[in-house]
Amino acid sequence: MTSMAILTCRPNSHPFQERRVLLTEAMKIGRSVARARPAPNNCIFDCKVLSRNHALLWFENSKFFLQDTKSSNGTFVNNQRLSKGSEESPAHEIHSGDIIQFGVDVMENSRKVTHGCIIAQIHLYNPDGTEFKPRNGMAPGPPLPLMGPPSVIQIQAQDLYQLQQYLQEAAHREQMLENKLAMLQRVMSETQEASQSSWQALIDEDRLLSRLEVLESQLQAFAKNQTEESLRKELVALQEDKHIYENTAKESLRRIFQEKLEIVTKLSDTERTCSNVEDECTHLKESYEMSQEELKALAAKHSDK
């Protein structure tokens, strides 16, 4: 016969099917990739927070061991991490009934989605089919000294850890309920805003229709009061005004264009004058330098004489 491990999903875990794995050799625990797909007889999980090679589980010398193989999000036994991030842990002995956690919950900021980790209770069985000793299943020893009431002495660390798990699960459910309540409140607020906007749009539409009716009435009254001849005369007057405005605008544009041409001509003359002045300054500077050199030469001759 062969040793076996059974992993049962905890309520606060990323959901997975119960696994029954035979430990004929070291069993790899990791994320589902390519051909490595989840199955009831392996430890491959369809969970994004796990590494591809997350941990190893094996049976050796009548003991069961678990080792973290440089995973990113860590491996935990009874809420204790086996190693730091991306570091391989030493082999850690585990017992039947331990709570094992692979990875941690990770929130994706882009979509505000939380990816859960794998949390399982493991039951271990020896090759002869008997269950491996639990962490609190110690061999009988000398009687303990009376330190308090028997009920206090009999409380085991495993019971305390299970109580802690229950409290964490209750807190997780409470947090989920709070999130749902907040979402419902947000939806209610958005619904109220949409209802208010719809009501305001309906009121605005009624006002607009009333305004259109008033304008149509005024237009009909105006059409009755005005004869066709008067409308024709007013149209002719409007066309004459249009021609006057067009001619005025054209004259203004022509005058502006003429002024622009004059300014461009003056600018060209000014640039040409500046160029001539610069040339003259350059010539005077050269004459000055030649005069300075002649003066120096005359001073040298004078000194010699």
TrEMBL record:
Cell location: Cell membrane, Sarcolemma; Cytoplasm, Cytoskeleton, Microtubule organizing center, Centrosome; Endoplasmic reticulum membrane; Mitochondrion membrane
Coiled-coil region(s): 167-248
Signal peptide, first to last residue: none
Domain of life, source organism: Eukaryota
InterPro entries the record matches: Cent_Immune-Sig_Mod, FHA_dom, SMAD_FHA_dom_sf
Quaternary state and interactors: Homodimer. Interacts with myosin. Interacts with SIKE1 and both associate with the STRIPAK core complex composed of PP2A catalytic and scaffolding subunits, the striatins (PP2A regulatory subunits), the striatin-associated proteins MOB4, STRIP1 and STRIP2, PDCD10 and members of the STE20 kinases, such as STK24 and STK26. Interacts (via FHA domain) with STK3 (when phosphorylated); the interaction associates STK3 with the STRIPAK complex.
Protein name listed in UniProt: Sarcolemmal membrane-associated protein
Organism: Branchiostoma belcheri (Amphioxus)
Gene: LOC109484774
